[in-house]
Amino acid sequence: MVIRDAAGVEQLICVSGAMGITSLDPHTGRRNWATGAFPLRTVGSPVYGGGLVIASCGQGGRYGVLQIAVDPSLGPETPRETRIRWSRKKVIPYVPTPVVHAGYLFEWTDQGLAACVDLKTGIDVWKRRIGGNFSGSPVCIDGKLYAISDAGDVVVIAASPRFRLLGRTPLDDPSRATPAVAHGRLYLRTYHRLTCVAARPSEATAENSR
């Protein structure tokens, strides 16, 4: 992903097991800085918010084991321990990518655990078991988080420091996809169908791709 840090400098952020979080100049490809290797594989994408880049690593058992938040605006000679602002080792997704919203980091793990984390400190605000397994990532729309479970249930929770489960709707078809959002519509992909949900229920359509 390309970010513009607190100093207004564009950086291309990459994540790998070999180099950890790495910053490149998007115009020249020159490396600006790197945190050093992660102990395990990286699958989920990094996210940026509140002046921090957050990324994690994990293993094939479908759980994350380490998540770090780094300040990308610090100079290239900054020591790793100074660049890392906080780290976490619990309730970390392996495949799904978290969401940054309104000063909080919202985690949604492969095993159906959700957490709200203070973006500045890395401290958990709440943790709840949603149920089900998840391969797709959540998306945030109007202060609500939407995710599709592997069984095909659309789960909605509030993107808020107070936990609220807002809904669960079965699509009756398995899914491994992240919801897509475009032009006021939510697209939900399952194994055999693509469902489009419009802002107004009367506009909702479903297309069977069999």
Give an account of the 3D structure.
By secondary structure, the chain is mainly beta. The chain has a domain at 1-94: Thrombin, subunit H, CATH 2.40.10.480. It contains 1 helix and 20 strands. The chain has a 4-stranded antiparallel beta sheet, with no helix packed on it. The protein has a 4-stranded antiparallel beta sheet with strand order 5-6-7-8. Strand 13 (139-141) and strand 14 (144-148) form a beta hairpin. The chain is globular. Mean pLDDT is 93; it is low at 202-210.
Write the layout of secondary structure elements.
Layout (H helix, E strand, L loop, with lengths): L1 E3 L5 E7 L3 E5 L6 E4 L12 E3 L2 E8 L3 E8 L9 H4 E5 L10 E3 L2 E5 L4 E6 L5 E6 L9 E3 L2 E5 L4 E6 L6 E6 L9 E3 L2 E5 L3 E6 L6 E4 L2
Antiparallel strand pairs: 1-2, 2-3, 3-4, 5-6, 6-7, 7-8, 9-10, 10-11, 11-12, 13-14, 14-15, 15-16, 17-18, 18-19, 19-20
